[in-house]
Amino acid sequence: MKIIGVTSDARVDAFPDAPTMKEQGIDMTFVNWRGFFAAPGLPADKLAKYQEVLAKMYDTPEWEEVRARNGWVNIHNSGDDFRKFLEEQEQIIGDLMRKLGFL
């Protein structure tokens, strides 16, 4: 399989020969993100503990090994920052889907 382009702002170390979309004249970026969600009403102390554990995970060599191997961008948004990120993603993806005629 040949990778014809990546949607990140810069080339990905895992695939250095794959040009970005911007390098190919397509003005767009998109990052494949992952998220952790909890049920509504989760007690604040439990939420804080989960957020603490996840933040620590992002600083481990094991996470860095998995992230680097897969060419993942290391993004960590928690709490209100994650909510804002999701709202922005909803707007960006919604605009794209409308532009493409899917919505």
The strand count comes to 0
The N- to C-terminal Cα distance equals 31 Å
- Tally of separate helices: 3
Topology pattern, helix = H, strand = E = HHH
Major sheet summary line: none
Task: Outline the structure in words.
It is a single chain. The chain is mainly α and 103 residues long. It folds into two domains: 1-30, no CATH class; 35-99, no CATH class. Helix content is 43%, strand content 0%. It has helices at residues 44-57, 61-70, 80-99. The longest helix has 20 residues, at 80-99.
Quick take:
The chain is mainly α.
Quick tags:
103 residues; mainly alpha; 2 domains; 43% helix; flat
Topology:
Elements: H1 44-57, H2 61-70, H3 80-99
